[in-house]
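question for whoever is on the cluster today: can someone run the full assembly for these? two chains, 595 residues total. i dont have access anymore since they changed the login thing
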Amino acid sequence: MKPGRIVIVILLIWSLGPLAWQLYTSFCTDQALVMPFASHDQRWTLAHYQSVLTSNPPFTRYLFNSLFAGVLSTILTLLLAIPAGYCLSKLGKRSALVIKCLLIGCALFPYVLLFLALLEIARFLQLGNSLIALAIPYAALSQPLAVLLLASAFSDLPSELEDAARVEGLTILQRFRWILLPLISPAIASTAILVFLFSWNEYPIALTWISDSDKLTLPVAMARIAGSSIHSVPYGPYAAATVIGSIPLILLVMIFQKPIVSGLTTGAVKG
Amino acid sequence: MTLELKEVGKKISNQWIVEHLSMTIADNECLALVGPSGCGKSTTLRLIAGLDPVSSGTIHINDRDVTELSPAKRSVGMVFQSYALLPHLTVIENLELGLRVRGVPQRERRGKIRQVLGLVQLLDRADSRPAELSGGQRQRVALARALLRQPEVYLLDEPMSNLDAQLREDIRPELRRLILEQSKPTIYVTHDQHEAMAMAQRIAVLHQGRIEQIDTPYNLYHNPCSLFVARFIGRPQINCLKDEAGDICAVRPEAIHFSDSGLSCTVQSREWLGNSQLLFLETPRGLIRMMASPDQVIPESARLTWSSDDEMFFSAETGCRLSR
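^ ran it for u. tokens below:
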């Protein structure tokens, strides 16, 4: 085996090992988990999944909540970031640089510091306990990065494509529909995944803005499972919850993998 | 039908990219815009197409002032250097897009596209994507798109500079035929003077954003109005010699011949051009380029001469033509 491959195998074990362990834990009975080398009547079980899925409210409820907040914040982000990115790519060099620096500053700002101010705004607007209220700050916090990513995608397009379309008589909306959006779709897909991931994983805002147990998002719900008993840590149900929680993400990447990869390979316009 | 530019100028951050451009291009006329890179050729084309707003002056198409109109309303057909075909659409879809947004009914669209594709001989590639086409084919698709527009003016921005030399020569007659058949004013931007002479009835030489001279290829070559034009037009380059008055005397390489008396010289090097040879000769007045027939024997003690009719004089300071 070549040394490069050995490194890859080590890296894979390093990154996938914990996931495998989590998967193993979720299917293991509590006794087998505590004493892995003893012999047990029953080593494997689906009980953890059963308990997670039949709790009140069932775990699928949180899954749906997170999906709802994630999809909504992704759509909101893209609706604003696509036109913003387009304009940024059309600006003069100097003003574009100033705006990009500001955006990078925003993207790097630790959002937890904004948290109390956001909370006050949410209270003022009476947006507590609503998933829509979560999607709005998520979209806002993802905005700088999304605009930067999309602006660079727009400025990578040859400007003659749009010039030709203008001569042909396409309006700005028609140019978006027929030229710009299809050509930057790989960038849109990867931006969407990033935004979705952020809102899927976000914890502090979700923790404080939502108290209604019907409207919790996944990270908060999982934390509740982990802290549900003061006598023991429910490793099994917690592992089952994380496994269920990662399935949508795996599906998402699998679906979007094709446009992302094809976007990388067929960028040739001139040839 | 005509295209008319009156005192057109374009300024970007206090610098004039082009200035005082005035020209009239008649129907059925192809005007070539030539000049070194950065002289404002492409800018001029973009101003006429309406892609960039002018800073001064007016543009008229068929006596209609289009200076303030959007590109869509000017009815120009443009071919871009990079062809600007959409990579995700097939040839037919590329061509159909413009017709669709201009409101041509679906049934008519296909007929028109087939007709134009026949004209550029690409009917068999209608369902290919641009990436599957050769450079020459892409160029013809771009041309077909401009033809479909049925414009009042054709603008071609270095349409052949991405093709290799052989293909360029092959396509030239075809392009000329297609453009002339339309009998519309055409502006052809190129940095290749041979291409300009082959394609156009008149050539405008641009230099630092101004028109240096606008004339027929014959007059540009034989009667340049400035040293810049004399040097720019004609390959091998014209010989520029200092004369006694401190002005510049220019003589074309083919006007020079060997004789018994005249300027003494020694051969420095020579280039074979097939049907002729180009000699580089050291003389007391500097290096002289001379075109000679391929079987020209170089005399032992060679001397150079030329007819005074072939001399052109230019001011050393301004580069302007002096009448002598």
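summary bc i know u wont read the tokens: The radius of gyration of chain A is 23 Å. Chain A touches chain B through 22 residues (CB under 8 Å).
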